[in-house]
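Researcher: Please translate sequence to structure tokens.
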Amino acid sequence: MSIADKETVLMTFSITDKCSIVVSGSNGIQSVDIPGFKTEELNRLLFEPDERGFITGGWVGDYQSYLNASSIYRQVYNTYNIIEQNKVTFEIENQLLEEYKNREYYFQAWQKTLNNVLFNIDIKLLYPLLEKLPGQIKRLIILPSGGLFLLPLHVVPLSDGQPLCQRYCVSYAPSIQLLREMQNKAEIIEGKGFYAVINHGEDPALVFSGCEGQTISKLFSFSQMDIGEFGTKATVLDKIPKWTYLHFSCHGRYNWIDPPHSGLYLFGGRLLSLADLQNNVVDMSLAWLVTLSACEIGITDVMIGSADEFVGLPAGFMLAGVPWVISSLWSVLDISTTILMQRFYSNHVVSAE
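Model: Translation complete:
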């Protein structure tokens, strides 16, 4: 089976002192050198490092500032909620308002930085490549490298204002070899059973996750859902091999200090870890699609590691044999995630029929 066809282009990146983009399509392999985009430029967009190499801003730095502001706001908000209404003081209400404004300020700053980063990626990196693509191309398979793993390349704004994913169908893969293996497996897996693991714990930020799982499960002829205490690690490991669609609505974390202990938090704080995936503790032989919904994959963990070492949970599932994985690059509001997931599965399951 060919990875690329006349309507598909495979894009691999190598960013060093210059950028070489290898394009594989129906016309063979073409190398496009872009000397104006170097490692230094990518690091500036991601981190804005100072002379000592410390992160001072950029996409990652501003996102970290937003997360810190959000954490402080949640702490004040939780304190406000547990105080009896007649004992709430003006100082507490004022602090809640100020922390809310502070969170919104850092959110807007992060959004502005993100837009600037994506604009620069288009002008300096993607545009020189896209203008060389044949007109019949409809799909892009992107194999990022280094810090590009941290960026939503599919929403880079093009010259006409529309995002890349509206002009092309965009997907990602960790490597060419793994991509070929996953494409071959995707063709032979059969079945449409849906299994959801919902573990919101006491986190009010995941209050819609249960509704999300129930709504999606109704789209399938065969489905099962384990919520909270019913989704123990032992139960999940036992049921995963029986289902084609696996849906996790829970928190997750990437651990740069000890990567094998990155994973998804199940009931009781037990971790479905990368080590479990790598050591075949989890049988993914029947899995066709894994969705990591409402999971904080941990993009800011790159601050204590190297983006060149980035593997992450999505790649971990693919290495375990899952052909398709859907995940998020950053924390998203629960209700927004629920609406998006419901629309995705509806289009995928109902429209396909």
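Researcher: Any highlights?
Model: The first strand starts at residue 8 and ends at 15.
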